[in-house]
Amino acid sequence: MRNILLIHCHDLGRFLGTYGVETVSTPHLDALADESVLFEQAFATAPHCSPARASLFTGTYPQTNGVLGLTHEPFGWDLKEPKDHIAARLKSVGYQTELVGVHHESRVLADDVVAGRLGFDHARTGGARDVVVDRATDALRRMSGSDRPFYLQVGFTEPHRVPSARDRPGVMGFLADGVEPDVSLGHSVPAHLVDDAGAREEIAELQGAVKHMDEGVGSILAELDSLGLRDQTLVLFTTDHGLALPRAKCTLYDAGLGVALMLRHPGNPAWSGRRVSDIVSHVDVLPTLLDLAGLPIPDGLAGTTLRPAVEAGEATRTHCFSQLSYHTYYDPKRSVRTPTHKLIVNFSNAPRAMDPTQSWIHRSLPADLGGPTIGTSPATELYDLTTDPEELDNIAGHPEQSENLRDLSAALFDWMRECGDPLLAAPVAASRHQLALSAIQEATLTRK
To answer: Which residues does the UniProt record annotate as the domain Sulfatase N-terminal (predicted)?
Structure first.
């Protein structure tokens, strides 16, 4: 059985040099990619933190695992079965297991409670980059002294937006402690945003935050090498979802769902210096890790091992599915993507794109904003990704697209049935619904 080091971060998308972003400085992750299989078209199952991570660590969709919204208060979503977590699966077959940094895939509770529920021997959650690096390297040193394999899960908060005294009033940017804007290589403003001074200011901060996180990853990988663990350890790096920029995070466009994903498998040339262009999903990560560690893949997972895609050039899936139900408010959406087309179905009249900036004042704006207001979502959105990769031209109403629309709709509906999507029965009630109802019921009962 192989050691497993899984490193993840917040809100990165594919904003790395190795994914073609020439203005961001990420030498450590770029070097890891050169030694790994890099998946060029990997997608999250949700465009926001907790549902995306719940899928990553359980190999199941949010509708199945129960995490349809954020897991911290006042939201309080949780895994239906915490023991489906990869840590519990690995601990049950003899692994040492430890959690360092971001935990957001199940109910946010005290560290010892989180550890016990998910199958970790130890959990030390939270912390900025340097704290996470110190705790992760300490964990590696301790676990390297055992003859048992280890699973170490390391989560960086960066490059998430954070409040900073350096922000202007009404703005929450990317200036965590130790982060400085970085424009040493220029700016890369995504094509779906207006390229203006405000966007460039945000991108400069984002580039600094990504560089800051990359340095932390480099420190952990250097410690792994210094302990002589490289050849015995699978190393996987990914992020939860897309960038915390307008029309990205909290949307089902590729900018919200596309993720960096790379996996180093020492001693296996097929897994070194390779780039795979097939579409893959975060639900494929858990079965892949189990397979490469020489462990059986349990029944009931939504994903499949990526070994055939890497070692035999066989595409492992024809569709990637994703969903949004709750982030800051109820905005139910479902999507299906093939290598060439994307269908998004919007189940409410919410604004066209949920705002992920956590700012009153927006420094960057969608390029397709148009008109005096953002407007509401159409019922269906269909995009030809070969000619319109930024998903700016909705062709759902074009007669010549009727066959694509029909086929994708059928695939989406079949998936919703297979994963027991609660939207098939009725709107999904949030925990806040019951909290508010209980409050007025209690007031009625105690009224004199």
So the answer is: 2-294
Beta carbons within 8 Å of 145's beta carbon, 6+ residues apart: none
Asked which of 311, 344, 375 is the last residue of a domain, the reply is 311
Q: Which pair of tokens denotes residue 2?
A: 């192989």
How far apart are alpha carbons 205 and 187 in whole angstroms? 10
Tokens of 212: 């800051």
pLDDT of 350 reads 86
110 and 207, same domain (yes or no): yes
Give the domain extent around 409: 320-433
CATH number at residue 356: 3.30.1120.10
Helices marked H in 82-149:
86-91, 111-118, 129-143
- The CA distance from 74 to 389, in Å, is 36
User: Whole-angstrom Cα distance, residue 62 to residue 71?
Assistant: 12
CA atoms in the 13 A half-sphere facing the CB of 222: 9
Distances (CA, A) of 411 to 19, 68, 318, 406: 29, 21, 10, 9
What's the CATH code of the domain at 77?
Answer: 3.40.720.10
Joined together, the tokens standing for residue 157 give 């908060």
Q: Can you list the positions of beta strands (E) in 266-416?
A: 274-281, 320-326, 330-337, 341-346, 380-384
- Among residues 275, 291, 311, the one where a domain terminates is 311
Asked, for residue 228, whether it belongs to a domain, the answer is yes
Element (H, E) at 432: helix 431-445
Q: How far apart are CA 105 and CA 85, in angstroms?
A: 9
**Amino acid identity, position 270:** A
CA–CA separation, 111 and 150 (whole Å): 19
Torsion of CA 35, 41, 47, 49, to 10 degrees: -20
Counting Cα atoms < 13 Å in the Cβ hemisphere of 310 gives 26
Cross-strand partners of 122 = 98
Q: Are residues 129 and 53 in the same domain?
A: yes
- The answer to whether the beta carbons of residues 54 and 79 sit under 8 Å apart is yes
Under 8 Å between Cβ of 108 and 72: yes
How sure is the predictor about 182, in pLDDT bands with cuts at 50, 70 and 90? Answer: very high
Residue 251: DSSP 8-state: S
The pLDDT tens digits of the residues spanning 280-309 come to: 999 999 999 999 999 999 999 999 999 999
What pairing do the DSSP bridges indicate for beta strands 150-156 and 380-384?
A: unpaired
Determine the residue type at 1: M
> How many residues would you count in the chain?
448
The answer to whether residue 426 scores a pLDDT higher than 90 is no
Phi and psi at residue 280, in whole multiples of 5°? -140, 160
> What domain count does the chain have?
2
